[in-house]
Amino acid sequence: MVKNRFLIGHYGKYDLSKQDRDFREYFFGVEICSISDSNDIAELMKEAKKNNFSYGVHMPMRAGQWKLRDAQFLSKNKNCQKESYNYLEREIEYISQYKPNYILIHFPKPMLLDERVDWSSWRFADTSEFYNETDYPYEMFMQKSEEFFIWLTKQAKAYGFTPVLEFDLVNKYIYDNKKFYELITSYPLIKICLDIPRLHLQTQLDKYFKVDSFINQYAKHTYLVHLSNLSIEKGLNHYPALPSLSPKEGWADVETYLNKIKEHNNSFKLLYEHWSNAVNAKQLQECYDWIEGILS
Questions:
Q1: Cα(296)–Cα(285) distance, rounded to whole angstroms?
Q2: The CATH classification of domain 6-295, taken from the options 1.10.10.10, 2.40.110.20, 3.20.20.150, 3.40.50.300
Q3: Mind listing the pLDDT tens digit for each residue in 166-201?
Q4: What does pTM read for this prediction?
């Protein structure tokens, strides 16, 4: 196991009490997203230098810089697409001064929905975040995706960061399409993030999505795994991955997911993307010990 692989997340602010409680000396670092106060960013940089840990950015780094959280670079609306690229470029330029280990962006945005599936349990920030697949031609998806990959690769080279794409809702143009896999892997600077609760949720909702095949295809290109647990039945998400959470009760089979990824790649980093305050300190350590045991 690569022990120096784990991260914790700070969303909205750099939370010193969370850092003290959740972080371990051997962890790789932290991931930050939507920070409201620039003083928190400065404090994080100071702490990272002092304590020798790394940091990655989950876009956006700063809250309130655009009308939505995620840039809609695949939008069919030319003005929205242009605004999205401009917003991303401004943010990447700003972020680059801090020299993060990686910059993570959700993909695809907007998402494409298979109309055969009931997506009412999926969380959408805004109706502009998705199209029906039948309203978004395959050729357009491939063209706009390649334009984005070209642009992102140029940004990564210009500003010296690792770009990571977190698969959001995975449409059939991605999971049922060898040509998309060939396209994205032809831009080797771009890495992948697999989000275990997202994969689990999609398997619960979408019978056409074959998660094992998807992981077999993309695990070798995975730079980062986002880990928490989720149960539709219990209405809980971003819950710590405790060994006691049974798949029979609707929870993700975390051990199976991690072992499947590990078959192809055991050098990925892992972010504990959970609400750690949902459990006590003993349970949190139990989560850490269990995950480290799986990956050892």
A1: 16
A2: 3.20.20.150
A3: 999 999 999 999 999 999 999 999 999 999 999 999
A4: 0.96
